[in-house]
Amino acid sequence: MMDTLFSVFRISVKAIFANKMRSALTSLGIVIGVAAVITMLAVGSGTQQEMTERFSRFGTNVLFLRQPWDLDESISSPKEVTMDDVRAIRRLSGVEAAAPYISSGFTVQYGYTSTSVDVLATDTDIFKTYDWELDSGREFTEKEVSDYAQVAVLGATAAQTIFNDVDAVGKTVIFEDIPFQVIGVMKKNGQGGFGFDMDEGALIPYTTGKVKMNAGWSKSDRRALDRVIIRVKDFNQIEETKEAIANAVRNTHKIHPLKPDDFQIDDFASFVEEAKSAGKTMGILLGVIGAVSLLVGGIGVMNIMLVSVTERTREIGIRMAIGATSADIRLQFLVEAVTLSCIGGLIGVALGIAATLIVAANSTTIPATLNITAIFVSFGFSAATGIFFGYYPAYKASKLTPIDALRYE
Amino acid sequence: MSLIETTNLYKTYVVGDVEVHALQGVSVSIERGEFVAVMGPSGSGKSTFMNILGCLDKPTKGKYILDGIDVTATDLSKLAGVRNRKIGFVFQGFNLISRTTAVENVELPMVYNHTPSHLRREKALAALKAVGLEKRAFHMPNQLSGGQQQRVAIARSLVCDAPIIFADEPTGNLDTKMSIEVMDLFTKLNKEMGKTIILITHEPDIAEYAGRLITFRDGQKVSDEVKK
Ligand SMILES: Nc1ncnc2c1ncn2[C@@H]1O[C@H](COP(=O)(O)OP(=O)(O)O)[C@@H](O)[C@H]1O
Ligand SMILES: [Mg+2]
Fold first, then answer.
1. Which residues numbered 153-172 in B keep a CB inside 8 Å of some CB on A?
2. What is the DSSP letter of A260?
3. Between chain A's N and C termini, which has fewer beta carbons within 10 Å?
4. Half-sphere exposure of A20 toward its Cβ, with a 13 Å CA cutoff?
């Protein structure tokens, strides 16, 4: 049996290589489909991996409080998140730290150099929520926060861009016409948060930001914060702490017990959910792309197999005359279709791996990690395409009668 | 019991509204080891007759018993094994598979009866040797002369030890010298290996090689004579 199958396979390879150009063009659809799926899945799983890494570096016991973007219509006078909330949250026993968070892009100037940085206006609790480490200088103090001090802690990349290799600590930089003294520079720590990248950014006291730098913070309530970052003491108590926070905020916002919240609390899990659903959407998209290209490739295979059956009608007749059964003929053409699409699949796999490696080596913004499952699955699909689209031509060939096939001109 | 026994075979082709009566009641019986030549003008039904005998086609009416098997009662698709084991074909146009070496062509019938590959090669080479082509085993059909290709086809018909060889105008595409080679080979197969050979030809010289001559005209057997 294996012996026969091997003979059939050899005949198939011979037939495929007899028409190299035609076979190559036929399998192109499958090549492209498989390569595309592998590459995109690699980019997808790379992104997901990086996101997960980012979350875990960030810590699982961090919560965010903010006003929802899609606020419930039934809430007539929603309150912004303010320092009142921060103070109320800080009083809760399950909370380790809570920091205000207002971020905005600014132009920063030093001498003749100017560049743009993400400025995060916050207070000293920020240093307890994030695990950032100082490279030189110091963090700002509570006194500097309450004194509206014009001090800034720079991210590593930002400091490098502005000062090159000169020590930034003690220097004065201008944020939108306002001078700030650099009191500290952070160590480089890779992307550290959501929407705020410490490496490229700068920290200033929120008081200074609110009062002296109106620009960019155009909320209806002048006291409004973008969000509050909360670090809980015990991860196992996170649900209870979340509830306590919600009660505290309902209290400061004076929400009637029967009315819904005008804020939301996000945790690590909800970000993971979001990432997962983004991944799912991406998966569906990839599935569609893969399916469409395999469909197109499959139709190509079917077309060429029908041509091949017609061209080789006489050969089919000869084979039948010397003892091939209908099943033998069907197997022959099926194996040929599968071989053709698997060759396409293999080339596609090679191309996909190459593309992934090229992306991974040359792009710093797009992470790509090879997904072994994706490789096997997409190769499997190319084989399945061969079976599915090769079946009809093979069936057609097997239905010929020996004499009709032999007489075919 | 005869090896081949047909009774009142009819074959009618319908082309559009026209009916072509290719065979009109042919009854023949052929014994094991006979060498039969079938002659007749073009269109007299010789090939139709042979295709039915070779289980490539079915008669419209009539009965055909091959080595005790009622072929007319069996579905064509079930007869692949019969063709493989009992029948070897040699066609006018050689009908070798192109881009496939001589020895692989000869091996082909054994692929379909699941002979292990090492045995296949051995037997195919032996068959090529029997037709005097062992030196051409690894040539492609298009690298061989017509006579050589026909001998490859004969080797292929021998390789499964089928008792019967059907040859439809095997010398039709060959010059005289090659025709003689091929006919000598058939004679040898008949005499030394006891093969039953049924050969169609329209050349009297070729028919001379056979021990029995059946003549067709308009789909009917008009004469059937055993020589000497
Ligand atoms: N597949 C077919 N369809 C229609 N007519 C056919 C077919 N095969 C043979 N015939 C007709 O049947 C008759 C006998 O043909 P054939 O057996 O090939 O004769 P021969 O081999 O003696 O020349 C001819 O008239 C031929 O045209
Ligand atoms: Mg004929």
1. 156, 160
2. P
3. C
4. 0
Q: Between residues A359 and B179, which one has the greater pLDDT? A: B179
- Between strands B35-39 and B196-200, the pairing is parallel
3-state secondary structure string across A289-352: HHHHHHHHHHHHHHHHHHHHHHHCHHHHHHHHHCCCCHHHHHHHHHHHHHHHHHHHHHHHHHHH
Q: How far is residue B131's CA from residue B109's CA, in Å, rounded to a whole number?
A: 17
**Residue B140 and residue B100 in contact, taking contact as beta carbons nearer than 8 Å:** yes
**Is the same domain home to A102 and A227?**
yes
DSSP line for A167-223? --TT-EEEETTEEEEEEEEEPP-S--SSS--GGGEEEEEHHHHHHH--TT---SSTT
Residue of A10, A311, A322 best to disrupt the B interface, most CBs of B under 10 A? A322
Q: How far apart (Å, rounded) are the C-alpha atoms in residues A130 and A64? A: 13
Structure-model confidence comparison of residues A279 and A37, the more confident one: A37
Handedness of CA B193, B198, B203, B208 (dihedral sign): positive
Domain at B175, CATH number:
3.40.50.300
> Taking CB atoms and an 8 Å cut-off, how many pairs form between chains A and B?
72
- Within this chain, do residues A297 and A367 fall inside the same structural domain, yes or no? yes
Q: Is B215 in the pocket of ligand 1 (CB under 6 A)?
A: no
pTM confidence score: 0.71
- Higher per-residue confidence, A189 vs B165: B165
Residue A239 lies in a domain: no
Ligand that comes closest to the CA of residue A406: 1
Please check whether residues A229 and A276 belong to one and the same domain: no
Q: B186 in a domain, yes or no? A: yes
Confidence category of residue A215, pLDDT binned at 50, 70, 90: very low
Q: Indicate whether B198 belongs to any domain.
A: yes
Q: Distances from the Cα of A197 to the Cαs of A161, A193, A201, A362, in angstroms?
A: 15, 6, 6, 22
Asked whether the ipTM of the predicted complex exceeds the cut of 0.90, the reply is yes
State the residue range of the domain holding B118: 33-55+80-226
Residue A74 included in any domain: no
Q: How far is A316 from chain B (nearest CA, A)?
A: 10
Q: What is the DSSP letter of B72?
A: G
Question: Does any domain span residue A254?
Answer: no
Count of domains in chain A? 2
pLDDT at A79: 85
Nearest to A152 by CA among A127, A175, A133, A177: A175
Question: Does the beta carbon of B40 sit less than 6 angstroms from any atom of ligand 1?
Answer: yes
Reported confidence tier of residue A133, pLDDT bands at 50, 70, 90: confident
Q: For chain B, what is the domain count?
A: 1
Residue A194 and residue A289 in one domain = no
Instruction: Name the stretches of chain B with pLDDT < 70.
Output: 228
Q: Cα(A399)–Cα(A396) distance, rounded to whole angstroms?
A: 5
- Proportion of chain B above pLDDT 70, given as a percent: 100
- B85 vs A323: CB contact, 8 Å cut-off? yes
Is there a contact between B194 and B167 (Cβ–Cβ < 8 Å)? no
* Ligand 1 pocket member B13 (CB < 6 A): yes
Question: Structural domain of residue A387, as residue ranges?
Answer: 2-54+272-407
Are B227 and B212 spatial neighbours (Cβ–Cβ below 8 Å)? yes
Q: CB of A336 within 8 A of CB of A308? A: yes
Instruction: Copy the structure tokens of residue A371.
Output: 């997904």
Say if A33 falls within a structural domain: yes
Q: Could you tell me if residue B6 is inside a domain?
A: no
CB contact under 8 A, B83 and A321: yes
